[in-house]
## 1
Amino acid sequence: MINATTYTARAHTNIALIKYWGKKDEDLILPMNSSLSLTLDHFYTETSVTFDEKLSDDLFFLDNQKQDVSNVSTFLDIVRKKANIQSKAQVYSTNYVPSTAGLASSASAYAALALAASKAAGLELDKPSLSRLARRGSGSACRSIYGGLVEWQAGFDDETSFAYPIKMPNNFEICMIALIISTNHKKISSRMGMKRVVETSPYYSNWVESSKKDLLAIKKALAENDFKTFGEISEENAMKMHALNMSAHPHFSYLEPDSIKAMKIVEGLRLQGISCYYTLDAGPNVKVICLKKDVSSIVNIFSNSFGHEKVLVASSGPAAHLI
Amino acid sequence: MINATTYTARAHTNIALIKYWGKKDEDLILPMNSSLSLTLDHFYTETSVTFDEKLSDDLFFLDNQKQDVSNVSTFLDIVRKKANIQSKAQVYSTNYVPSTAGLASSASAYAALALAASKAAGLELDKPSLSRLARRGSGSACRSIYGGLVEWQAGFDDETSFAYPIKMPNNFEICMIALIISTNHKKISSRMGMKRVVETSPYYSNWVESSKKDLLAIKKALAENDFKTFGEISEENAMKMHALNMSAHPHFSYLEPDSIKAMKIVEGLRLQGISCYYTLDAGPNVKVICLKKDVSSIVNIFSNSFGHEKVLVASSGPAAHLI
C-alpha cells in the first residue's frame, strides 16, 4: 500500500569520453565495453513521479506536453516489480538539456526517473542499485547517477553492470564546450547505429579490445594528473567510434561539413598550445574538452566561426539528487 | 652496349575501387591486400627515356622543370640491373594528370617510366614483368600497365605481386567524375598514411580480411553485370579505408567539409534513383563512379554546388603504350 506521495529528482546529463557503442544484451542493456564520462552541470532533467492507486494508466508529460507513455511504462514496470506494487504513476518531466544539443537527454531523463520513481515506490536503493535501474532505461543513464567523472563497468549481467565515480584529479578544472551544428533529428538513432555496428562492422571486435585499453590508459592519465593524455585518449576513442560507423554495412556517419570544420579548428588551437580535444556522439555536434582557463579563447573562436548562439559551455556537474 | 635510342611511353592513371592501403614489404612494395582499379582515359603521363653512355648522371625533367633525380635514379637502377647496363639516362616527363586532382599521378608516372625505360634499356618485358617493375616505383603504378578494370594480386614476393586485367562487363559504361575540393598539398602522404595505419590502427588486420572479401564480392558483381553492387562495394571499401585513418594513432583524416558535402549530394542522388557511388583516396577530393547515361546530371549538380571548373570527367582508359 503506497501513499500517493510525489518525489522529484534532478539528474544531469553526461558526456562519454570513452564511448559506450554497442550492447551485448539488448534487453538488459549490457554494454560490450566499459565507458567513462563526465557529468555536466548546466544540462539536466527534473522529473516528478507519483504512484496513485486511482490511476487507470501511467501518464507521462514532458515539458508540459503529454507523451506516448510506452517506454516510461516499461521502465516503471521494473520499478513496480522491485517494489511489489501495482499502482500506475504520473510522471512529469522537464528537460533543461537543450534537445537540440545532442547532449543525450535520455541519460539525464532515465537517471532522474530512476531516482524519483524508486523513491515514490517506497524503495530505498543504494547508488549502485540506482545506477543499475537507470541503465535499464538508457545505458548511459547509469552514469548520470553520479557527478564528475564516472566509470560504467560493463559487467556480465544485470547485477554486475553499473557505474561508480572516479576521482577527479586536483587542479583538473575540466570544462566542456558544445558546438551545436545541427538541430535536425538524427536519421540513425544511437540505438540503431550501435546495433548496426555490432552486427556488421568488421572492426567491431577490435573496437571492444581497443576501448578496454583506452579505459586503462585514461585512468592512468587521471591518476597522473595528465590532462593532455586524458584529452588525447578521449579524442582518439571518439574517432575510433565514428570509424566504426563508416565501416558498417550499410556505412553511415554522423559527421557534417561543419563537424569537420570545428574539428580542424580544435586541431589548430592545439598547434597554438591550447590543450583542447574534441569528442562527438551519435550526431554532428562537436564537444570540446578543455581546462577552465582556456574556455574563453575557444568560445570566442567558435562564436566567430559559427555564431555565439551555437556555443554552450558546461563544467563538472553533481550527482542525481532529490529536490 | 646500348644505342642512345629514345623511347616514349604513355600511361594512364587509375582509381582504386578496392583500395591498396598498407605494405607488407616497404622495399619491394608488396601490398597487404589485393586491390582493383579502373584505368582512366583523360589523365596520363608521357615519359621519354634515353640511356646515354656520355651522361655522367641521370637527369629528370617533369613538365620542363629539372627535378631532384634520386627517386627516378633508384628506379632506373632496377632497370639497369635487369638489362645489365651502366649508362645514365635522361628522363623527360609530361603529366596530363592535373596535379591538383588527387588522381595519383605517381601511378601513371611510374607505369610510363617502366615501359619507356625498359624499352630504352633493350629489355623486352611481358606485361606481368612490366607490372612488377612499375610496382617498384609506386605500388598503384603496377595497375596502370593495363587499361580498363585491373586487379593487383598482392602476392607474397617480387615475382608474385603484379596486376592483370579483369573483363569489363558488357554494357558497363563506367565513368568517373572527380570533384576537386582542395589543391593544397596533403599533409600526410599516402606512403606515410598507410604506414601509420599498418603500425597503429587496431582495426588494420580486419581491414585486410574485409578487403579480401570485398574483392571477391566485387568480382562476382562484375561477373553478374551488377553495377549497383559493384558501386556499393566500392563505396564501402573506401569508407573502411578512411575509417582506418580515423582509428590510427595519432588519428588523421583526409576528409574536408566539402568532401562530406559532396558525399551527401551523392547519397541524395541515389535516393532519386541515380546509381552513383563515391570513393576517396589520400586526399579530400571525391570521385564518383557512375554510368555514362548519368554523367550530365551529376556534373550539373556538382557544378552548381562547387563550380564547373572543379568537376572533371573521365571514363575507362587504355593500357600503357609506346607512342
Note: Chain B has a mean pLDDT of 95.
## 2
Amino acid sequence: MQALFKRILVNDIQVSPGDAILVGLSGGADSMVLLDVLLHVADSLQLAILAAHLDHGMRPESADDAAFVARFCRRRDVPLTVGHRDVPALARQHKQGLEEAAREARREFLQQTARVEGCRFIALGHHRNDQVETFLHRLLRGSGLSGLAGMRLRSGPFIRPLLSFSRQDILAYLDDHQIPHVEDASNADTVFTRNRLRHELLPRLRDFNPRIEEHLARLSRRIAVEEDYWTEQVDAYLESSCEEGDDGLWLSRQGLTGLHPALRSRVLRGALLRLRGDLRGIGAKHLASLDDLLDAPRSEAEAHLPGVWAARRYERLWLRTAPPPDPTDFAVVVPGPGVYDLPGGGRLSVSLNQGCLGEDRWATEFDADKVPFPLLVRPFRKGDRFYPCGAPGHRKLKDFFIDAKIDREIRRSWPLVVADEILWLPGLRRGHGRWPQTVGGRVLRLVASGLSRPNQSL
Amino acid sequence: MQALFKRILVNDIQVSPGDAILVGLSGGADSMVLLDVLLHVADSLQLAILAAHLDHGMRPESADDAAFVARFCRRRDVPLTVGHRDVPALARQHKQGLEEAAREARREFLQQTARVEGCRFIALGHHRNDQVETFLHRLLRGSGLSGLAGMRLRSGPFIRPLLSFSRQDILAYLDDHQIPHVEDASNADTVFTRNRLRHELLPRLRDFNPRIEEHLARLSRRIAVEEDYWTEQVDAYLESSCEEGDDGLWLSRQGLTGLHPALRSRVLRGALLRLRGDLRGIGAKHLASLDDLLDAPRSEAEAHLPGVWAARRYERLWLRTAPPPDPTDFAVVVPGPGVYDLPGGGRLSVSLNQGCLGEDRWATEFDADKVPFPLLVRPFRKGDRFYPCGAPGHRKLKDFFIDAKIDREIRRSWPLVVADEILWLPGLRRGHGRWPQTVGGRVLRLVASGLSRPNQSL
C-alpha cells in the first residue's frame, strides 16, 4: 500500500519536497490511516505533516474524539489544530441540513487552518467505497450526470490520496499497524441510506459483477473528467456570449440554437447556475421549457422555473431570479419650453426656435403653431393609436412596437410625447405631419437624452 | 396513450403525411401494441403501416409465431413480409453470440424489407423498461459512458415510438384493447440476467426511489445526447488531424496533448475504433497506456493493446492492428555504373562523369578515384559507424539516426551506400571527405529516387 500511495502522491497529486500537508483528522479509521501512511512516507518525500480536527458540537462524545486525536498527535509529534463549531446553530442560521452545514464548516475550518499553518495541501480520507457509495446514492436519488461525477484526487488545495484504495485495504492497514481510532460518526444525515447501500444493495450488485465497485469508481472518475471538460466549454461560451446586467442575464437565441443540443443544455444549466448560485430543483423538464421558449414560433413568451423567471424577447433569452417589476405609470406635464426629468433617468428638453436644427433618433421638430401645449409624457396605454411618419395611416401602437421588436417591458414603460395625439416615440419614430414650415415659422424642438436604445440586440 | 403517442410521432420523430412505416413484428406484447397504436393513428396522420416478421429459426415454435402474426395482419389488413434466417448457423459462421447474430439478422432483414416496400421508417417496440434494464445491465457489466447511452427515439430509419412508455402502460393497453400476442422469446441470451434485473434488482432500487426507472431512463437519454456531441467532436478532430495510411494511423503527439484530457481520451478511443472497427476489450488501462506513450520522456516506445499495436515515434503516435513486419535484410551489389532497383521500390543510379553536376538531398558526388567498386547497398547493421560530412569524426550510426529523429522502422530498413565504409545515407547525409577534385578528375555520382522522406512529420 505504501509504495502505491507514494506513487499517487508524487505522480498524480504531484507533491513536491518541502510541501506541508494538513490532514483533516476526524479520528475515524480512514483519516487515522491517512495520517499514518503520510507520516510513513513524509521523510523520504520531504513532506511536513500537520493535522486539524473540528469538533462539530453535534454529539456529546465529540470532546472525547478531540482528546483522542490530541493524544495520538502528541505521541506521534504531529502539530494539531483543534477547532470548535456549533454546527446545529450554523445549520439553523443558514437554513441548511446538518450534513451540509457540517461539510461547509469543516471545509472552511480546514482552509483557514491550512492558511495559518502554511500548508499547500489539505488531505482528506475518502476512499474508493466512499466514491462508489456516493455514486450509487446520487444515481438512486436521480442525479444528472454532473451529480455522478466522482470526487477528485485533487481539487484546489484538497487532495484524496486514499481514493484508489478500498475500505478493505484501509481496514487491513489499520489491523496490520494497530492504529487506534474512534467510530466515525460523520455523514450523520446520510448514514442510514449509506448503510443500506453498503449492506443491502452493494452485496446484490456484487452478485451480478464481483468487480462492480472498481467499475463504478472508474465510471465516476471518467464522468468527473468529462464534467471538467464541460465546465470549460460552458464557461468559455458564457464568457463570450452571455450579457450579465442589473436586470439579469441575456443570451442570444441564435447563438444557443446553433449549439449541439448537448452543449446547449449544458450552457443553459450553466447560465441558471450563474444566475441562482445553485441548481437545486432544476430538472430536465425545466430545461425543456427553456428549449421551448427558444424553439417556439412565439417571439415573446415567459416560463417560470424554480427560482428563475425566463423570457424570450425576440432574438434574446432573458433570465432573472424574479419577473421584472411592473412598470410604474407616470405622467409628466410639459406646459412649455424647458427641461423635464423623465422616470428612469431620462430627460426631455423642449425648445421653441426660429428655423430647424435637424432631426435624428433622439431629436425631432414640429411646426410649433400646429402643436398645442401642454404636452404630456406618459407610457403606453391600452388602445393607444399612432400615425407613424411615413406610414399610410393610424395603427395600433402595440402593433407598431411589436413590428419594431420592442421588448414587452420596454413597450410598457417607454416615454411617449403626446399632444392631442401621440407626437413622438423618442428613439423610434416621430408622428406623421405637422412638419415645420420651410421658411420663417416657429419650430418646436424636442430632444430626449439619457434613454437606452429601445431595441438592443446582442 | 394515443394522444401522447401521436405527439411523439409528429413532434419528436417528425413523421410526415404519406410516410410508410414498417413495424418489426415479433408477435410479442410490445410489438403488437406498437402495431395496434400505429394503426389507430395511421388515418389521421396519413401514414401507411406495414409489418415484417423474421423467423429466427432458433425455437421449434417459431413457425407458430409466424402463423399467428400472419393471421393478425390478414385480419387487420396490414401488408406483412415474413423472412427466415438460420440464426444459429449465422452465429457459427460469423463467430458471434446468438443474441448478436439474431440482432444483426433482424436489422438487415428489416432494412431490406423497408427498401423493397418503400418504407421511410422502421418502428421497433422498445419501451422505457427495456431502456432502463439495458442501462442497468451495462452499468453492472462495467460499461463506460458510451455504453450507457440510451436507445434513440430515432436513429437512421429506426424509430422507437414506445420509448417513453413503461411496460405497465403497454400491458394496460394490451388489456384494454384485448390485443392477442405470443410470449416474446427474443433476447434469449440475456433473458436470464434481464429477469434477475427485473425481478430481483429493480424492486430493491424502487425501495430507494420509487421513480428510479424514470430517472434512469432520463439519465440514459441524456448520456445519449452527449454521446452524439462527443461523436461529432471526435470525428471532426480525426478528420483534420489523423493520417490514415496503408501502414496504420498517425496522430500528432502535440495535437493530442493539447486537448482536454476528456476529449483526448475520446479521440484515442475514436482512433482505435477507426483502426479496429470496434472497441471490444479496450478498457481504461489501455487508454492509460496510450497516454503514457504520449506523456513519457521516451520518444520511441511501444504498447500492446488488444488487437492494437501502438508506438510513439518522436512527435507522432502510430496505431496499427499488428506490429510492423520486421524489415527484411537485403544487399544490392553495385559493381559499377548503372541503375539498380532497391527493395521497397527505390532506385539507385550510379554514373561516372567528368565534372560535377551538384549535390542535393537525393544526389551526391565523390572523387571516383577515392571510392573503390563494388559498392554495396544494405540496411543498418548493429555496430555501424558513420563519419557524417561536417561532423568532427566517426560516431554510431544509430545515434546519428536518433538525433535526426528517424523512426525505428525507417532506421532498420533505410538503404545505406557502403564502400570501404558508409558513404551515403540517401535523403539524409553524405559521408565526410572524398570530395570530387575541383578540376579535371572523374566524379562518381549517386542519385537515389523513389524513396519517401525518412523523417516525415505530420
Note: Residues 332-449 of chain B form a domain with the Phenylalanyl-tRNA Synthetase; Chain B, domain 3 fold (CATH 3.50.40.10).
